[in-house]
Design a protein that fits this description.
22% helix; 125 residues; 9 strands; alpha+beta; four-stranded antiparallel β-sheet; 46% strand
Length: 125
């Protein structure tokens, strides 16, 4: 049982630390990382937007959740509304997503309680 907990902790750290270091580089070194501001879209419960961290580096979207806010549905769309990717993830975790084309995008996070948050970003070549 203890071995499983250690394994889960190592996996969690492997997912979160690269994103945390990447976000730290935004304010320290300009190396291509751009922080994405997460805004409230539809929030009826205690706001949790500050627990969602997102950044873009070229075509790679990186997202991490700093708290356990349950299951989160993530949808990435173009600014005109065409869906690029959809996924569901448990928190606290992190993930990366490759956006193939340059352009304006929106990432939407829907919590299991129905609250929604979003961030707008630009992918450049």
């Amino acid at each position: 049982m203890r071995h499983v907990k250690i394994q889960q902790f190592v996996l969690l750290m492997a997912l979160l630390l690269p994103t945390a270091w990447g976000n730290a580089n935004v304010s320290i070194v300009s190396d291509g990382f751009s922080h994405i501001t997460i805004k409230e879209a539809k929030v009826q419960h205690t706001p949790k937007g500050s627990t969602i961290n997102a950044s873009i580096n070229g075509h790679t979207l990186m997202v991490s959740f700093s708290q356990n806010i349950g299951q989160v549905a993530v949808e990435i769309t173009t600014a005109t509304g065409a869906t690029v990717d959809c996924l569901t993830t448990m928190t606290p975790t992190g993930f990366q997503c490759y956006i193939p084309d340059a352009g304006d995008y929106i990432v939407t996070f829907t919590l299991s309680n129905g609250d929604e948050y979003y961030g707008e970003f630009i992918v450049t070549d």
